[in-house]
Amino acid sequence: MRTPEKNTLLIKQKARTLGFDHCGIAKAEQLTEDAYRLEQWLQQGMHGNMQYMENYFDKRIDPRLLVDGAQSVITLLLNYYPVQEQQPEAPKLAKYAYGRDYHDVIREKLNTLLADLRVEIGDIQGRGFVDSAPVLERSWAQRSGLGWIGKNGNLIHKQAGSFFFIATLIVDIPLVYDGPAADYCGSCTRCLDACPTGALVSPTVVDGSRCISYYTIELKDMLIPASMQGKFENWMFGCDICQDVCPWNRFSKPNTEFAPIPEVLNFTTSQWEEMTEEEFKRIFAKSPLKRSKYAGIRRNLKFLGRPE
Fold it and tell me: Active-site residue 131, yes or no?
């Protein structure tokens, strides 16, 4: 007979087999405190023009509205810290964008995990999510003991840092739940001090509308505000400053699953500038960079002070 204990052990074993680095589980329930913080964040306009953040508020704070009969929220971490880094003088890309689009990689793993569980356990109802649905991934990760929310707003794992993708699998079976993780940021303010645009307005509170990642990825306008001129520190797509300065990331270990696209590592500034749209579509067809599209990359390059 299957028990919550046996099923929990099975899930964590399967997660490791599929390549996930860490797995934690929490009871599916409404996130009351998170609901208040999210509401305040939205009311203050810190989401900028990311209007989708206003949608499905009730579902964001209660996983039981996403899966009928949901009882458990499984959170999985997948390390993406790269083996190699870019050329130092080239326009910078956030490390998560060095290789293949993580949505494709993780979605496949989640589908496999759920299918395997149905074979072993039986008729499980569940849904997997990776950055594509109204789920507060970091909150669930913290609740399931995988880390704490750092002052930079990222999930930090005590033994492995913060360079992780977070995936969520919501299921309708009871499991053994992990306890929440403690906060180990202490008095450190390195991330707050290092942010060049002042996006980290206070510990754990990120003004998304002032973040370099927001301007270089999420903002769809073809003009970046002139007030941000000179503050991007050569970041063309995303930004890792608040993670790079975090002391806990000294524990980050390279992951080979997201092998960098050669052009990401080797393109010089002039090669980025001279790249045609056809080349962009061919080289980055399976890359997160396609989210900004060719026009967005051109805009970002121009804003960094390079003529078209």
Answer: yes
